[in-house]
Amino acid sequence: xxxxxxxxxxxxxxxxxxxxxxxxxxxxxxxxxxxxxxxxxxxxxxxxxxxxxxxxxxxxxxxxxxxxxxxxxxxxxxxxxxxxxxxxxxxxxxxxxxxxxxxxxxxxxxxxxxxxxxxxxxxxxxxxxxxxxxxxxxxxxxxxxxxxxxxxxxxxxxxxxxxxxxxxxxxxxxxxxxxxxxxxxxxxxxxxxxxxxxxxxxxxxxxxxxxxxxxxxx
Amino acid sequence: xxxxxxxxxxxxxxxxxxxxxxxxxxxxxxxxxxxxxxxxxxxxxxxxxxxxxxxxxxxxxxxxxxxxxxxxxxxxxxxxxxxxxxxxxxxxxxxxxxxxxxxxxxxxxxxxxxxxxxxxxxxxxxxxxxxxxxxxxxxxxxxxxxxxxxxxxxxxxxxxxxxxxxxxxxxxxxxxxxxxxxxxxxxxxxxxxxxxxxxxxxxxxxxxxxxxxxxxxxxxxxxxxxxxxxxxxxxxxxxxxxxxxxxxxxxxxxxxxxxxxxxxxxxxxxxxxxxxxxxxxxxxxxxxxxxxx
Amino acid sequence: xxxxxxxxxxxxxxxxxxxxxxxxxxxxxxxxxxxxxxxxxxxxxxxxxxxxxxxxxxxxxxxxxxxxxxxxxxxxxxxxxxxxxxxxxxxxxxxxxxxxxxxxxxxxxxxxxxxxxxxxxxxxxxxxxxxxxxxxxxxxxxxxxxxxxxxxxxxxxxxxxxxxxxxxxxxxxxxxxxxxxxxxxxxxxxxxxxxxxxxxxxxxxxxxxxxxxxxxxxxxxxxxxxxxxxxxxxxxxxxxxxxxxxxxxxxxxxxxxxxxxxxxxxxxxxxxxxxxxxxxxxxxxxxxxxxxxxxx
Lengths: 218, 293, 296
Known about the structure:
The complex is a heterotrimer.
Chain A: H1 4-8, H2 10-42, H3 47-61, H4 65-79, H5 86-112, H6 115-123, H7 128-158, H8 170-180, H9 185-217
Chain B: H1 11-41, H2 47-54, H3 62-98, H4 104-118, H5 122-132, H6 137-162, H7 166-174, H8 179-209, H9 221-232, H10 237-269
Chain C: H1 2-22, H2 28-39, H3 53-60, E1 63-67, E2 70-71, E3 75-77, E4 83-84, H4 86-97, E5 105-109, H5 115-120, E6 126-132, H6 135-138, E7 141-150, E8 152-157, E9 173-177, H7 181-189, E10 194-198, H8 205-210, E11 215-219, H9 220-229, E12 233-236, E13 243-250, H10 254-270, H11 272-279
Parallel strand pairs in C: 1-5, 1-6, 9-10, 9-11
Antiparallel strand pairs in C: 2-3, 3-4, 6-13, 7-13, 8-11, 8-12
């Protein structure tokens, strides 16, 4: 039980932390785009697109993330010419999984905008696309941001699953260090925990503050 | 649902929509078909690749394979979830109530516990139990699931309580109930009803997270699939993966449907305020809010 | 419960050891050999020194052995629950010497992440899991054996001519298992290689075939097993490390360690070790010479 093991391995920790952060940002951005698109599919006038959006979110929300990783690394190469591994496979798995939660958050945000808003938009002759993008979505954003931050926090923690699939992010770094210093393994893991909390606690506070502001603004 | 995002279509628009719908549907099917065609070219659908499910090689019987998947594997997944879920609910409730206390430092400790465990990856907590406490894989998995989910559930309960009108507390106190009684008899019963969908959604998350056990050596469904793949060789991979994914989907969608039905019922009996959409894992937001089934 | 028992047993065996030392007994190894002498005559439970781990296990009639279920030729487990492989056979030999029947062995899966913790907390009595003896691990557990000596090598596609030895791994994606000695060795000695660590070596096969990684590196015997099963894969170059496989057990249990060493040496001589090899790994690999046991 010697805290110096954390200080001694700071470069390794920082490299792992950077990779975890990078995975969070890249997959987070991807999930926001894909998720918003899927949410739009789910409210679109075309039945087959609505069905596709529904199946997409249902499948991904009810599959464990580990299985999604398994899919991108081992099953996808059987069905497509894509050969993803390590970082690229992790980005895809995390993007797919997170996008389903983003889609649900955005959809409930769209539904939370008063019906009168879109009725008014339609009354002045806006099309579906115009109603959605210039009237409904801008208003939905306000109530969607706090849940979206929570989705991203969950993503930050979920990047740890990539440790099982050849990505040396924070968790894998911790396991590697624990293996190299078996007598100090507990302290090594405490170090890993601190780095995760550096991301998740401030983000959680931000979400809480925004949530209160949204509640107040109503 | 009649959406208000677009006009109720007339005959011409309906025809256009039908055509668009069919075109989009065909596009999706073409993409899936291309994948199947590619896989067929790689021999993925060759009968011997699927033999593992009905006539497995290497002196094993199909009954052995299915028993290992459904009894050993799924059984272990459900066992971990069945132990972790009530514990997480109980501890989450305790934490949430603890957080409403009027003694500042006590309240602060509850907040600290919630913030700490909400912010740590479940996998890390499992590894910690394995290494620091020297627990077996099952206990480590259950510990990870309980500790994380109790923090999320505490948050759901807090949001549920916060969403109740202030008058409820005031009325409870006014009729001479103590604060504890008000909480137990007036606030919690009302809050629980609105929280139910979020709670069930969180249980789906808990069940899914049990699959992280494969990294710490707990032989749940995913690990069983892997061990079978190692035994029978990689040719059996797609067949076993298909079964595993199917089982997870079946169990989780059943639970999610239950959540929706509960939500439907609570909406009929009372108009629940929109709550908990912003709590914890992204999943909790999924079944709350005014979502049309 | 189990850990408490094993902990107590370890404590007792340490104290008997201390008593023996006080009463002017010989060195540990010599003493263990004497005690084992009584146990070699028959398969029936022998007279083990009172308070020793051997006595406790023989008394209880069961032993918990940690092994891997993902290592072709060494440790696999079919869906019917029966483990197979060379490690499993070694476990049966040791259990047999304690008078424990094959069916009374409790097999627990140990993965790289939990081998040391499981030994330390007493959830397993011994670990036989292609477990390389090294100094870092000796800080927290102890090792009987080795019972086999492997060496790290490289597996790649037959058609790949670029990789002939470890020096060719620079800039290549090399698949291995996280927490393993091959992983540590690659990071330490071949920093140019892009190490891709998964959970099990079998997990590396499909990515290698699909071109997601360029090579797999681990112990030659494991790779030889893969090459034998898959004609499109080939082992390249000579082994470039020495990986003595040991039997992991509690750090302080010297009596038990020395006793297992005796059992191993005996199995080298009476042909049971060779038999175990030929029944498992020997189906695709030549039979090696048994290694010299290291009584540190």
